[in-house]
Each structure stands twice: as structure tokens, then as C-alpha cells.
Write a structure and sequence with these properties.
The protein is of the alpha/beta class and 440 residues long.
Length: 440
């Protein structure tokens, strides 16, 4: 068995992408050939899934699969081939151990073990093993914590480093570089892939529930279990039926001083009440323009807390500006904008998209909130803290903290790390409080 095969692509509807040396698949033509004018009404998710079908689906079942999307039916399974797999070091390592074991079995039978490789590009980020033993008040805290991490994980890191050299299609981001979702958003996602002379949307599965963090870029990214990720890694389709695609119209503008965390906690409460379990959410509307990519990432990251599977934003000027800000190659940034505008994935191209269900959320009504830690949907307005017995007046000697008091400025890690406003604000609060602990 050879797991080094190339991606197979169909020939129908493959056309030159104007102004480039790449081809693309004209999904609009394929959809409109079945039902004229249907593409214009498709939501963003449906357009991306349809492109995947036109490019990769068995030609004999293509029409029937596209009809499920066009007619909003959920009667047949159709294949989805994610462009890449993203793993953290715990679950990703087990998948690579399986491949290493398969190599041993092939070698025992006299075969070439080097032929066993992931078919789909796989990125493994080592970020789930760090334990903070030295606080931020120690100027050498980073180096000391990293040394402890290396010592505790010596055998595991040795195997992970071996996989980087041994396997094709495996890219390892070593420890000390950041959190999986932050790296995925800021560095790893091209938004539009170009492979084998063809441009197509970036899509992925990841072995972490907060993989939809990168949905903020308009990238369909789903959190899955290790076995499903391994199956995709080996080139197998992830079979699905058309998901419930819900439009979430964002209106209004935030009040001064309101952070993305305030917004997402209010939004979590709202969406939980609206019963969006397993749905694909698409955020759009006049209020979206006021949200930075960091704000959008904060929202998309909380997708599992909404109960949904995906939380997508359209590709627009904010997306392009963010790609430039994070150092993406200029040619790649131009490709993203050109492809999105050509194929109907640009925000302005989705004004006539129709949703089976639309929810409206008003940013102007969001106040300052707290929630959690275990129940992020249990939002409490800061104006009600005393009323609910969470805060109250403390009598103590001037200049002295009361016994047992601890001041901590903290923000939930992967929800906020790609939002500079939130991380800087947390750090500022901790500095002003003379607090030795921050968890950015």
C-alpha cells in the first residue's frame, strides 16, 4: 500500500485563473449548469464545499452531491477532502506513531518503509506540554520553563523530531513557538492554497476543539478526534451531509471600552439560547466591518462554546490587511484577494446569499461582562457583580492587602492570544496591580 500518492483532481470545469499562471475550478459554472442562478444564493460554506466537490468528487456522483447543496437537502453523504491536517503534539504524536508502526510492518514484509507518508500535508505544533514553574516576574522564566519542558519530554520530543526528518508531508513546529491556533492563524494558513498548478480554498481538520479559530480568515476548519484526523491524513475523504448553515447578522457598533471578550461572552450566551448545536455559523453584516481580525478570531475560537461546528467570516479587506500585517508573501496576499473576488468568496459577492435561518446580534447592546471559568455561557454583567454576591466592599488597612487576597490578571489562552488588544490590556492591568502572574 502506497500512501505517497498525489491528490487526484477532476478535469471538468478546470480553467485558467485570469492574470495568474494557475488554474482554478469554476464552481459557479458547475452549480449554475444544474440550476441557473443558484450559485449567487449559496452561503459561503456551501460555495467552499461545492468547490471541493467539483475539484475532487467522483464525476459519477458529482451532480447528485451538488444537488444536495443547491437544494439544501440532507439525504445523501458527500465527500469532503480537507487540504491539510493540523495536530497538537499529544494526539498528533499518536497518529505518527501509527504510521511509524506501519513502516515497521512494511519493512518486515520486504517493502520500502519510506513509501509510508501522510498524503495530506500535516502540521504538528508542540504546544500542549508546557507547565509554568517560573512566573513572569523572573526575567529568565521563558528559558527556565523551556528547559524543564525539554527534560520532562525528552523521549517524546526525540520521536517528534525524528518524524520531521523521516516523513514527507510533515511539518513540525517545535516547542517554544506559541499556541497551535495562534500559529495557524498568523503563519500557517495561506487562506487560498496553490498546489499542482491549481488554486483552491484552504480547508483543514485539527485535533483540538478550538481549531475553528482560523475560521476568522474564511477558512473552514473543524476540530476532530485523532482517528478522523489520521484518516484524513492518509488521503481518505471525510464524509458529511450538508450541515445546517446559519447566518448571524452582526449590526451596530461596540460601545467605547468594550473588548472582544465582552462581545464573545454576550454572543456565547445569545447563541446557546438559539440552539446552534453542530451548525456552521457565518458572521456578516454592517457590524462586522468594525471587528478587527483579532476580534473575529476571538469569536471564531469560541465556536465549541456556542455549541457549533464552525464560525466563519467572509474574506474582505480586513482579511487582506491582516495577511500583510502578519508577514504573508505579497504574491500570496494578491492571490487571496484575486481568487476570492473571481470565485465569489469576497464579502461583496455574498450580498444575495440566502440562509435557511438568520439570527441578528447587536454589538451596541454589549456591556462589560465576566463568565466562567467552567461555564462560559453563564455571563454576568460587571454592573451586577455585587448584586449576585460575586463582589463586595472589603475593609482593610490602607496600603495593605487583606489576608488571603490574590490579584490575578488573566485571559483565556487560545481565545485571546491572537487579539493584541486583549493581551496588552491583561498585561497592563497586571503591571498596574503589581501582580507577578499573567497568563496571556
Amino acid at each position: 500500500m502506497n500512501f505517497s500518492m498525489n491528490f487526484s483532481m477532476n478535469k471538468a470545469y478546470r480553467k485558467p485563473l485570469p492574470g495568474t499562471d494557475l488554474d482554478y475550478y469554476d464552481t459557479r459554472a458547475a452549480v449554475d449548469a444544474i440550476q441557473p442562478g443558484a450559485y449567487l444564493k449559496l452561503p459561503y460554506t456551501a460555495r467552499v464545499l461545492a468547490e471541493n466537490l467539483v475539484r475532487r468528487c467522483d464525476p459519477e456522483t458529482l451532480t447528485a452531491s451538488l444537488q444536495q447543496i443547491i437544494e439544501r437537502k440532507r439525504e445523501l453523504d458527500f465527500p469532503w477532502y480537507p487540504a491539510r491536517v493540523v495536530c497538537h503534539d499529544i494526539l498528533g504524536q499518536t497518529a505518527l506513531v501509527d504510521l511509524a508502526g506501519l513502516r515497521d510492518a512494511i519493512a518486515e514484509q520486504g517493502g520500502d518503509p519510506a513509501q509510508i507518508n501522510p498524503v495530506v500535508p500535516t502540521q504538528l505544533i508542540v504546544d500542549h506540554s508546557l507547565a509554568v514553574e517560573h512566573g513572569g516576574y523572573d526575567k529568565d522564566a521563558f528559558d527556565k520553563n523551556r528547559a524543564i519542558e525539554d527534560r520532562r519530554n525528552e523521549d517524546r520530543f526525540h520521536f517528534i523530531n525524528w518524524t520531521r526528518e523521516a516523513f514527507k508531508n510533515v511539518d513540525v513546529i517545535p516547542p517554544g513557538n506559541g499556541i497551535l491556533h495562534q500559529i495557524n492563524l498568523e503563519k500557517m494558513s495561506p487562506v487560498i492554497q496553490s498546489r499542482d498548478g491549481v488554486a483552491f480554498p484552504d480547508t483543514l481538520v485539527g485535533t483540538d476543539s478550538h481549531t475553528p479559530h482560523v475560521d476568522a480568515l474564511g477558512v473552514i476548519a473543524l476540530g476532530v478526534g485523532g482517528l478522523e484526523a489520521e484518516s484524513v491524513m492518509l488521503g481518505r475523504a471525510s464524509w458529511m451531509r450538508l450541515p445546517d448553515i446559519i447566518g448571524v447578522e452582526i449590526v451596530g457598533r461596540r460601545q467605547p471600552g468594550i473588548t472582544a471578550t465582552d462581545i464573545v461572552l454576550a454572543l456565547t450566551e445569545f447563541l446557546r439560547n438559539q440552539k446552534v448545536v453542530s451548525s456552521y455559523l457565518e458572521f456578516y453584516g454592517t457590524g462586522v466591518a468594525d471587528l478587527t481580525l483579532g476580534d473575529r478570531a476571538t469569536i471564531s475560537n469560541m465556536t465549541p462554546e456556542f455549541g457549533a461546528s464552525a464560525g466563519l467570516f467572509y474574506i474582505d479587506r480586513q482579511t487582506i490587511d491582516y495577511l500583510r500585517l502578519t508577514g504573508r508573501d505579497n504574491d500570496q496576499v494578491r492571490l487571496v484577494e484575486h481568487y476570492a473576488k473571481t470565485t465569489g468568496l469576497w464579502a461583496d459577492s455574498l450580498e444575495q446569499a440566502e440562509y435557511e435561518r438568520v439570527l441578528t446580534f447587536d454589538l451596541s447592546k454589549v456591556g462589560r461582562n465576566i463568565a466562567g471559568p467552567s461555564n462560559p455561557h453563564r455571563r454576568v454583567s460587571t454592573s451586577e457583580l455585587a448584586q449576585q454576591g460575586i463582589s463586595g466592599k472589603v475593609e482593610n488597612e490602607p496600603g495593605l492587602m487583606p489576608d488571603g487576597a490574590v490579584i490575578i490578571a488573566a485571559i483565556t489562552s487560545c481565545t485571546n492570544t491572537s487579539n493584541p488588544r486583549n493581551t496588552v490590556a491583561a498585561g497592563t492591568v497586571s503591571e498596574e496591580s503589581q501582580c507577578p502572574w499573567t497568563y496571556p
